[in-house]
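Researcher: Here's the sequence for the chain we discussed earlier.
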Amino acid sequence: MRAVIQRVTEASVSIAGKVAGACGRGYVVLLGVGEGDTEEEVERLWSKIWKLRIFPDGEHHTGASLGDVEGEVLVVSQFTLYADCRKGNRPSFTGAGEPGESQRLYELFVERARRDCGHVATGEFGADMQVSLVNDGPFTICLDTDDLKRPRR
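Model: Thanks. This is the structure I predict for it:
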């Protein structure tokens, strides 16, 4: 699984001109599911996101986690995180997971996030969406579960 996490002061996702989900201070999580991803990746990725200390805590610029600041989350599915642009100019998405399984894992991720976080909003899996946000910092982090399971060097 891959995620782009943006620390935001506010964000929303619209479908056909209507707001489908929104959040205040917290994270926008653009979530991509890859071929072969499992429930283990859901847990590993959410656990890392939940514990990330990227909010100011008064002493450090990055000392507080999402839970520490009672932050909100907006999760948006984004298979394009698996774009392969190594050959030619048209991205290939063969590394993205099959739609049915990807949707199941996306929904499981959202469910898992809701166990920890008081406010979790979403877009609609597979829909054409427009995301609006105010990136706070700006602060953006890219995570890939393949990298999260490798030991540090």
